[in-house]
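Action item from last week, closing it out:
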Amino acid sequence: MIFSTTEYLQLVETDDQPSRHRLRWEAAPLDVWLDVLSQHPEFKRAVASNKLLEIPVMRVLARDNDPLVRCDIAEKPNLPDDLFYLLANDADEAVRARVAYNKNVPLDILHYLKNDSSDVVVQAVKNRLRPAGKVGKNVVPFPVQAKLRASQGAALTLAPITGI
């Protein structure tokens, strides 16, 4: 467990494999997460990538201005229904597509997203609603990943989105 903001920052600065593992897989008290987010907003994506993130922290990050942070939260398998609904109505199509690809998204949200204005989101829903035998290896939403990488100013590289 990560017990303090200072410990969290030390792990970030160390940047070795054991530290990265702890940042991703160890819980922290709610006050530590909230302190990191308020005092060190540059680490909000690192916080969002934690696998044991508490729901109150997800609620804060689901309303973040950065669509990449909201995408990270949309992928969480333990996302509560109210956050699925919030993110399914996000202004950014990449966030909505990530909601559609979340394996725990409620069916009513998938059906709602079926009528989305974005072709990327609609395709994500279609891929999720296909019978299991009809889904191939290449159903990964590459346009979503490409859009996200391009919005970061990075060279266009395609990689599957994890957690599907």
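Closing note: The chain has two domains: 1-61, 66-164.
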